[in-house]
Amino acid sequence: NVSHGLAWSFYLGYLKLVLPHLQKSVEKLKELNGAVLKGAGPTRLHILLPLNAAVSSRPEVDDPNVRFHAHLPPLEVDRAGVRGRVFKNSLYKVMDAQGKPHFCVLEYATPLLTLHQMSHESSAGFGEAQRRHQVLLFYRTLRDILESSLQCRNLYRLILLDDQRTHEPHYLSTEIVRH
Amino acid sequence: NVSHGLAWSFYLGYLKLVLPHLQKSVEKLKELNGAVLKGAGPTRLHILLPLNAAVSSRPEVDDPNVRFHAHLPPLEVDRAGVRGRVFKNSLYKVMDAQGKPHFCVLEYATPLLTLHQMSHESSAGFGEAQRRHQVLLFYRTLRDILESSLQCRNLYRLILLDDQRTHEPHYLSTEIVRH
Lengths: 179, 179
Ligand SMILES: Nc1nc(=O)c2ncn([C@@H]3O[C@@H]4COP(=O)(O)O[C@H]5[C@@H](O)[C@H](n6cnc7c(N)ncnc76)O[C@@H]5COP(=O)(O)O[C@@H]3[C@@H]4O)c2[nH]1
Fold this sequence. Notes:
Chain A is an alpha/beta fold. Chain A contains 5 helices and 7 strands, in the order H-H-E-E-E-E-E-E-H-H-E-H. Chain A is globular and about 50 Å long. CGAMP (1SY) sits between chains A (6, 9-10, 13-14, 82, 85, 87, 107, 110-111, 114) and B (9-10, 13-14, 80, 82, 85, 87, 110-111, 113-114).
């Protein structure tokens, strides 16, 4: 089951590593100039999950109210023979409907890119019809893993994006701000 | 099927991106001082696949004849909302049985780390008994994907490592040199 493995891989190989370091990374960031991050409590990674797995490299393309602001200081880890493998997150400035800015760390769930590309490779074994089902399975598996994780408690927000609504010009920023 | 998805993810999200750039990256590397890479033909990524999924962060731990030499110049790509995501490979100096050095780009297949960790998480759904089977399935799926890939043709070496032989002090360097 493709999504089951991708969700576990996303957690074990990435989220478990980076989420506990987010708070410290953000505190080192001069570009914030004392600006406060969205939401009370610890710094959370906002993980965007489009139901149609249509992941953009830059969210500005989906909604100009979501703007890249700064890189967080990177984490460097020796991993599986790759020396100093770099894990670097992106801080965004999200404008709400009143024009007020909200700063938050966000990205799309990268494994959805794999699901999208696999659905176009005939030898990969599944097509566009099963893809939506795989995205939902990925979301539910990831949600369950994260809810049971002590290391990642309260350090994330999972944001499911309905492709029936992506034509709305500020759907993305609205969803991020309300989560 | 966990390994099927991990092999596709490894290809679509990583190998397809980095392998075509390896040759150019190596040519920019001053630390080689004109030293020639192992093997005639294009620069290949040597991918280590231990059958027991026991992936080390540093191969020196498994065989002191495998030594980190230099970082290749990184590739930076905007991907899924992560701006300037860094892909950086490691060049190693591998001493053979005659003490002659061979330079090559190598790493363990990182998804095997996921398999290893999943086999210890009860809620992930498989244990150590199925793990060896999953590693073999990962290897065969990856081999088939890479053999049909036009972009990655001849740019890799898959090196299966038999855990029955890892007690031999220079098993790793010997396997790398002979592939
Ligand atoms: N947003 C984001 N930023 C990251 O730095 C990152 N690193 C991993 N991931 C995602 O976490 C999961 C676990 O990663 P793992 O390393 O086991 O597999 C990785 C790994 O085997 C290989 N790979 C990807 N990036 C690198 C890299 N920079 N160096 C070496 N190997 C890499 O290719 C697989 C698939 O990568 P992605 O398809 O980008 O998504 C991964 C994956 O879903 C990331 N996601």
